[in-house]
Design a protein that fits this description.
The complex is a heterodimer of chains A (207) and B (101).
Chain A lengths: L6 H13 L3 H23 L4 H27 L2 E3 L2 H28 L5 H26 L3 H18 L4 H30 L10
Helix pairs in contact in A: 2-3, 2-7, 5-6, 5-7, 6-7
Chain B lengths: L15 H11 L1 E5 H8 L3 H13 L3 E8 L2 E8 L1 H20 L3
Helix pairs in contact in B: 1-2
The chains are: A mainly alpha (207), B alpha+beta (101).
């Protein structure tokens, strides 16, 4: 290496490499599909399985990490993505939800005020838009166009049902189902493409 | 007549391979040798030699950790390394700005 490298190009290419295996969207997609299935069962069969909606996504993300170690790492090496943006995003999101929860509870107790039903639809739509913003940011960082597409799908599927004034359970099922289907299918496609482009290196002979 | 003052460039970072290594590590939390080698195009031997210089300068740290019960040697840029990369970028931009047209 004799030419001075572009620091920004290398950083962008590095972040892109971490996400090119398709496992990020596969994990997120599967977690969303679980939430969609639980909401669908709750709406159609009146069975409340919210416990699974809360723990299964975490199990999926852990499995994806394990897949990354066993499939991706032998081919292009292993890297932990930088977490600064995500930590800040989660912190802001949790703080916002806490403030909102305290405000709504206080209003109900002190003023006997009940928020209108549509407010919860738009709260969920806001959460969806937050997710879309995170995916958009990931596109800007990596240059992987498919994350822009995911952002658009998540934004549309979160806001559309709110505009259509669907019942909250159906809204959540539609939004998470649509986003989950698209991201899971795309994740499988990109994973197969990645495994085809990066065959596993041959084992070195013993001795 | 006094000799002109040499610009203050960090010679550890100024080497293209080491600049590429630091650029790669600055974009991740940590990475193993294979990942850094695949991103920078360096051979493992070359990478190892440059890593030693960066580690001696305190810009990177090398740690053996278990990831999913598999032992890995992970490379990580230190705070000092990030600051040095930032200062290097600033001095290079300053030098280019001062160049006559």
């Amino acid at each position: 290496m004799t030419d001075m490298p572009s620091v920004e190009d290398i950083q962008r290419r590095t972040r892109r490499s971490i996400s090119e295996d398709g496992l990020t969207e596969l994990g997120a997609g599967m977690a969303l599909l679980v939430v969609a299935t639980v909401m669908f069962i709750a709406v159609v069969f009146d069975r409340k399985l919210f416990f699974y909606a809360s723990i299964f996504p975490a199990l999926v993300m852990i499995s994806i990490r394990s897949l990354r170690v066993r499939l991706t790492a032998p081919r292009i090496g292993y890297a932990e993505p930088a977490r600064t943006g995500m930590k800040l995003g989660i912190l802001i999101g949790l703080a916002g939800l806490m403030v909102l929860g305290v405000a709504v509870t206080a209003a109900r107790q002190l003023l006997s005020w009940r928020p209108p039903v549509w407010a919860f639809n738009w709260l969920f739509a806001l959460l969806g838009l937050g997710g879309a913003a995170a995916l958009y940011g990931h596109w800007r960082e990596t240059g992987l166009r498919r994350f822009f597409v995911y952002a658009a799908v998540v934004a549309a599927s979160s806001v559309g049902p709110a505009l259509a004034r669907l019942e909250l359970g159906i809204h959540i099922a539609v939004a998470t189902g649509a986003s989950g289907l698209v991201m899971t299918a795309a994740g499988i496609w990109w994973l197969v493409d990645f495994l085809r482009r990066h065959p596993r290196p041959a084992e070195s002979p013993a001795g | 007549m006094t000799a002109p003052e040499q610009p203050d460039i960090d010679r550890v970072i100024h080497e293209p391979a080491r600049l590429a290594i630091l650029a790669c590590l600055s974009a991740v939390e940590s990475a193993d040798f294979l990942f850094v080698a695949s991103q920078t195009g360096l051979t493992r031997g070359n990478l190892s030699s440059h890593m030693t210089k960066l580690e001696t300068a305190g810009y990177v740290e090398v740690k053996k950790e278990f990831v999913e019960r598999i032992p890995r040697t992970l490379l990580r840029i230190t705070r000092r390394g990030r600051a040095a990369l930032r200062d290097y970028r600033r001095s290079m931009l300053g030098m280019l700005r001062d160049l006559p047209r």
